[in-house]
Every structure is written in structure tokens, then in C-alpha cells.
Amino acid sequence: MEYATELLKTFIALFVIINPLAIIPVYLSLTGGMDLPTKNRVVKISAISTFCVLFISAVAGEIILKIFGISIPAFQVGGGILLSTISYNMMMAKDEQRTQTPEEKADSAGKGIGIAVVPLTIPMLTGPGTMSLAIVTASKYHSFLGYFYIIVSAALISVIIYYIFKSADKIKRMIGITGMNILTKVLSLLLMALAIELIADGVRLLLPGLNLMHV
Q1: How many CA atoms lie less than 13 Å away from 130 in the CB half-sphere?
Q2: Are 13 and 129 in contact (CB under 8 A)?
Q3: Which of 50, 76, 167, 195 has the fewest CB within 10 Å, making it most exposed?
Q4: Band of the pLDDT at 103, cuts 50, 70, 90?
């Protein structure tokens, strides 16, 4: 039961921060004018790329931290602060993950398959906060479990992204902009709670003398 709970927490945290529903308007804008086969390739590449980014972050993240001499607890605190900032921006309709640079806008204007990776996958679906969460989750268990939680969650989310983008037009008509905004607000509260848990766990490990109660 505990394993299922941790897997569910990992899945929810990743899904909330990735928030593919919020990408629907951008996806529709970037793929406007494309024929159906091209759109299908964009959807498929985006889903696969999202899984690859999460997988690489989980597997190689701890190694990178060791190279730079950064401890897992310190990264937990930093990642938690980053996630809390993202959740706040989501709540206040300032979702910085969805912002495109002028270069990205110019690149996407070509309507090529490349938009499936940049900017759809990076940074819109998998920005710094998503990568940080994957690294922290994989690292804090110090066992195969961390990788298992991330890989399974990443696989499920990639499948969800695939079907959400495939049904983007229908979802937008059914939920509407207002509905997606409301959903984003609710999900941002969940992400804030998970961010605070990360910060509390990291501080407790960095400063064991404080005897903080486990969140």
C-alpha cells in the first residue's frame, strides 16, 4: 500500500507540474495549418520526448549533482522552492514555464516537426521544475524504487499527453478556456503542498537537530 501511495504521489506531482491541459492552446496554435499526418508525428514525438527527458533526469540527475558537489537535501530544498514558485505563478496566472522566447517563436513559425521538442517538450512540458522533481524523487529513495516511480509515472504521463494532444480540439471545446484556468488553479494548490513537503524533508535532513516532524 505504501508503494502505491508513493507512486501515486509521484505521478500526481509530475502531472500537475507538466499540466498538459494548459498546453492545449499553445499546441493548437503551433500546429495550425498542419496536415493530419504531421500533427500525429508532432504528438508522438512530444510524448516520447517527455518520457526521455524525465528518464534522463532521473537516471543521470544524481550523478550530475555529485559532480558539482551538491547534496540531495540541498537540492530538495532548492527544488521545493522552485516548485513552490511555479505553483504560485500558476495560481496567479503567471506560468513562466509556458513562456516562449522570441527565438522559439520564430522557430515554431516554420511549423516543422522540431516544435515537438522545442518548445512543446522543452520548456513547456518539461521545464526546470519538472526536471528538478524527477531528480529529487529518484534520488531520495537511494534505491531502485525512486527510478521505478519516475519511469512508471513518466510512461503514464506520456500516454496521457499523447491522447490529450490528439483530442486537443474536442477538449478545448468541451472544457473551454475558463474550465482549463479553474483546473490549473486547483492543481497549483496540490503542487504547492508537494513543494512544501520537499522543502520540509530537505531542511530536516540538512538540520537534523531541529527535530522537525515528518510531513
Answers
A1: 29
A2: no
A3: 167
A4: low
pLDDT on residue 215: 46
Look up residue 142 and give its three cell numbers: 537511494
Q: Are 130 and 54 in contact (CB under 8 A)?
A: yes
Helix (H, G, I), strand (E, B) or coil at 212: coil
Burial 67-82 (b: 16+ CB within 10 A, else e): eeeeebbebbbbbbbb
Per-residue b/e over 163-197, b at no fewer than 16 CB within 10 Å? Answer: ebbeebeebbeeeeeeebeeebeebbeebbebbbb
Mean pLDDT, residues 101-124 = 66
Pairwise CA distance, residues 175 & 177, whole Å: 7
Contacts of residue 122, defined as CB under 8 A and 6 or more positions apart, other chains included, come to 49, 53
User: Rounded to an integer, what distance in angstroms lies between the CA atom of residue 67 and that of residue 161?
Assistant: 33
CA dihedral 160, 165, 167, 169 (to 10 degrees): 150
Q: Judging by beta carbons within 10 Å of its beta carbon (0-12, 13-18, 19+), is residue 116 exposed, middle or buried?
A: buried
The pLDDT tens digits of the residues spanning 205-215 come to 888 766 655 54
Mean residue pLDDT of the chain comes to: 81
Q: How far apart are CA 122 and CA 23, in angstroms?
A: 12
